[in-house]
Write the C-alpha cells for this entry.
Amino acid sequence: MPEREIRALQERVYRANMALRELGLVVATFGNVSGIHRPSGTVAIKPSGVVYDELSPESMVLVDLDNRVVEGTLNPSSDTRTHVRLYARFPEIGGIVHTHSKYATAWAQARRALPCFGTTHADIFYGEVPCTAVMRDEQISRDYEEETAVQILETFERWDYRSTPGVLVACHGPFTWGNTPAQAVYHSQVLEYVAEMALASLLLTPELGGIKKSLLDKHYLRKHGADAYYGQKSPGAGRDEPG
Amino acid sequence: MPEREIRALQERVYRANMALRELGLVVATFGNVSGIHRPSGTVAIKPSGVVYDELSPESMVLVDLDNRVVEGTLNPSSDTRTHVRLYARFPEIGGIVHTHSKYATAWAQARRALPCFGTTHADIFYGEVPCTAVMRDEQISRDYEEETAVQILETFERWDYRSTPGVLVACHGPFTWGNTPAQAVYHSQVLEYVAEMALASLLLTPELGGIKKSLLDKHYLRKHGADAYYGQKSPGAGRDEPG
Amino acid sequence: MPEREIRALQERVYRANMALRELGLVVATFGNVSGIHRPSGTVAIKPSGVVYDELSPESMVLVDLDNRVVEGTLNPSSDTRTHVRLYARFPEIGGIVHTHSKYATAWAQARRALPCFGTTHADIFYGEVPCTAVMRDEQISRDYEEETAVQILETFERWDYRSTPGVLVACHGPFTWGNTPAQAVYHSQVLEYVAEMALASLLLTPELGGIKKSLLDKHYLRKHGADAYYGQKSPGAGRDEPG
Amino acid sequence: MPEREIRALQERVYRANMALRELGLVVATFGNVSGIHRPSGTVAIKPSGVVYDELSPESMVLVDLDNRVVEGTLNPSSDTRTHVRLYARFPEIGGIVHTHSKYATAWAQARRALPCFGTTHADIFYGEVPCTAVMRDEQISRDYEEETAVQILETFERWDYRSTPGVLVACHGPFTWGNTPAQAVYHSQVLEYVAEMALASLLLTPELGGIKKSLLDKHYLRKHGADAYYGQKSPGAGRDEPG
C-alpha cells in the first residue's frame, strides 16, 4: 500500500464521516462512510459502534476486497461486507455512505421507491430511487451484510448505478455512492432532502406522479455528461459536489 | 457603470445569498439571489455551483440585461436568464431569489397554488401564491431557463407582481422578488413558513378554503399602500422588511 | 408612574420578547410580548415591526389602558389594542404573548379548537384550547385589533381565562397569557409543543378524542390550586413556570 | 451508603438529565432521569420542576426504595414513585428515563403501540414497543404515580423488559430504561427517532405491517446476546450505548 495515499484516504473518509453527523444524517452511531484506493484495492471504513467524538483519521479501519482487516485494531463497521461487495461490482465509484436518515429510511420502511417529483431530485438522481425487495429468509440466515449487497445488486440489474447513485434497502435504510466519499455524503444529503419533500408532496397530492421524461432529461443532463453547463469549469468549483 | 454603486450592489447581493443559508432555505448550493442596478441595467448574481463558504462580494457575477457577463471570471448562476427576464418585465423590483426550500418546493412539486389560509400569509402575499403550468416539451427543448421566465410571466398575466411577490414554478421550486435583495429573501422566508403551515392546516381540515376577501384586504392593506399603519414611519425601521 | 418598577417591567418584557425568538416561536418580526404594571395601569409592549436585534429594554413602548402612548418615540405593536383590552377584562394576568408559531397557527388557520390529548397539555391547559369564531365583516371594518379582543372575550364567556391561559384566533394565530410576561411565554411554548403533538396524534388516530375528565383533573390539579404537589415550595423554583 | 459511589451516581444521573435536554427530548422541565445504586437500594433522581440551568450533581435527590428522601432539600421528581416501583420489579436495570418527547408522546396520545417497521428499531427494541391501557378511574383516584407503574407492570406481564427497554404510557408519554442512566437516555433517543420515522412510514403506506420475525431476530441478535458481533469487544467502545 502506498503509505501517503492511504493516509489521505483515511483523512477523507474520516472527514466524510464527521460531515454525516454535522448534516444531521445520523442518530447515535447509526451511519458509516467508506472510501476506496482503487490501485491497491484498499477500503477505509468507519469502525463499528464507536461514538463520533472518539473517531480520528487513524481509527478508520483498512480492509481489502476480501473483507480482511489489513490495518487497525478496531472492528470495521458491521456493514463492511456490503460496502466491499459494492466496490467490487460498481467499478467507477470511490465512496459509499450508509445512513438511517429519517425520511429516506421512512421510504425504505414503507418499502416504496422514491419517485422523482421535481428538479431537486432530477439534478442528482436520474429518475426514481429504487427500493430493494425484502430479504428472503434463506438470505437472512446466510451472511446478512453480504446478502444486503446481493439485494442491492439484484435491483441494479435493471438500473444504472452511475446515474442513480443511491438505493433504499427495504426495512432498513439508504445507501448512496459517488466518485469520492464526500460526493457520496452529498448524495445522501440530497436523498434525505428530496425524500422529505416527496412525502410532503404526496400529502398535498396523493395521486402525484413523477415528472415527465423531457424535464428529467433536461435537468439531469444540465449537470451531468458532455453537455453539462451547471457550475464552473475551473478547478476548485465542482459540478455536483460542493467541496 | 458607476463603480461605487455596483460594489454596494454586490455587497448587498452577497449578504442576501448568505442570509438564505442562515435562514435554512437552501440545501447545498441549490439557491441564488440577484439584485439589479436599474440606471445601468446591471445585475449582480451568485456564481453557479460555488459552495457558500467560498462566496465573497466580489465573486457576485455582473451581467447585463442581454445575459452577457460584464465582469467576473466565474459562470453566473445557471438560473441567470430567468432572473434577467423577470427584471426586464417587472420594472419595480430590485432583487430576486430562487430556492428549493422544503415546503414551498413541496407545493411546487404537487403542482398546487398555495392558498391564503391566514394572516401570516396575507401580511405579505395578497391572496394565493400561484403555481405555473408544467413546462411544455417544446419549451424544454428551447432555452430552459429563459422558458422558466416565460412560464412565470404567463402566470402573471393574471396576477399583479407587486402584491404577489412570489410564484411556485411547477415541478421545480419558488421564486420571490422585492424592492431589494434583502426584501426578496424575506419574502422567500415567509413563503416557506406559510407553505409549511398551510400543509399542516390542510392535514387538520382537508377541505379548508382560503380566508375571506374582507380579512385578506384588512391584513394586506394594514402593511401596504397609503393607509398602512404597521411598523415605524422613521427611517431604520422598515414596514415589511426586517433589516 | 413609579420609575423603578416601570423600568423593571420594561426589562422583563424585553427579556420575554427575546425569549420568544430563542424558543423559535417567531418568524421575522411576527410576535410580541407585553406586561402590565397594575397599580398604575401601565403596559409595556414591543414596538411595531422592529427587528429583534435592535430591541432594548428602553425601546419597549409604554401605553396606558386607553391605548395612549405615555412614553417612547416608536409606535407600539400593531396588536396593542388587543393586549390592552385583554388586560382590562382579565384582571389576574400580568403578561400577554402573541405569536404566529407554526403548529398553533396551523390549528388557528384550520379553525379548530385544540383538544387535550395528553398530560403535557393537561399540565398547563385545563381542557381544550378554544378557537374563536371567524371575525364578521362588520367587525373587520371597525377597529380590527380591538375586535380581535372582542372575538377572544366572546369566546371566554364560556371559558375561564385562569385555567385556560390561551386561545387560537381563527385565521390568525395564538394568544397566551400568564401571571408574568415570562409565564405567558412559557404558555406559548407549551401550546406550540402540544399543537404539534396533537397533529401527529390525529394522523395516527384520526378519530381520537380528548382525554377523560378524571385524568384531566388529576394532571391539572397536580400543578395548580391548593393541593398542587408538583415542583418546589421554596422560592426560586416555580410551580409551572421555568425561570 | 457508600459515599463515593453515591456521589458518582449523582454525577451520572445529572449528566444524563443534561443529555436529555441536549438531545432535544424535553420541553421546559418535562422530563427526568434516575439511576440506582443497587447494593444500598438508593435512587438518585432529578428534583421536581427545577429548570435545567439550575441543576447540579448535588441537587439530584436521593430516595430509598420506600420513596423516602434520604438526602436533599428539594422535592424529588413528581414521577419518583413510578421510577422506584420499576426498579423494584425490574432487577436488572440501572437507569430510568421519562420524557414527553414529541413523536413518542404522539403515539402514546394516540394510544397505539409502536410497530417495528425497520432495523433502526430492531437494533434496540425486540419488536413493537407496547402502549399501556388508559388508567382506570379508581386508579387515578389512588396514588397516581404509583398507578402509572402499575399500568406499566401490567403491560410487562406479557413482555420481557430486558429486550423491550421502553413503554408508551397511554395519554402521557414514554418511559425507557437501561443498564445505566446513559443507556436509558440512549433508548429514549432511539425511541423518539423511530417513533418519528414510523409515523412518516405510515403516511406513505397506511396499511404497513411490522418487519418479519426472521429479520427482527437477525438485527436484534446482531447487537444483543452471546452471538452479538456489532461494535467493539475492547473496553471504551460499547455495544449499543454510545458513551
